[in-house]
Amino acid sequence: MFQRSQPDKAERTVTLTIDGRSVTAREGDTVAAAMLAAGIPHCRTTPISGVPRAPYCMMGVCFDCLVVVDGVGNRQGCLVRVRDGMTVELQSGKRGLP
Hints:
Helix content: under 10%
Low-confidence stretches: none
Number of domains: 1
Structural class: mainly beta
CATH superfamily: 2Fe-2S iron-sulphur cluster binding domain, sarcosine oxidase, alpha subunit, N-terminal domain
Largest sheet: 7 strands, mixed
Oligomer: single chain
CATH architecture: Roll
CATH class: Alpha Beta
Number of strands: 7
Mean pLDDT: 90
Number of helices: 1
CATH topology: Ubiquitin-like (UB roll)
Radius of gyration: 13 Å
């Protein structure tokens, strides 16, 4: 289970939308970390079986944290920093080419 250390009182936060839900995250967090901290259990589903996948390596190697960020699919949530007003969607199956 994902658990944060105690927050710093002067810590800055940003607000983003994840699948229609307003989420507050720490400034500097990645999308994957913000999702885990908000209790969102997975980022995407697999193309063939539809099995949910959650962030695994948190360093850009495994591609299990693929999400749609501001309308752009196949973004690795562990490599994208949150910013105020960002819109994130869970990715269902494979994404087509634009």
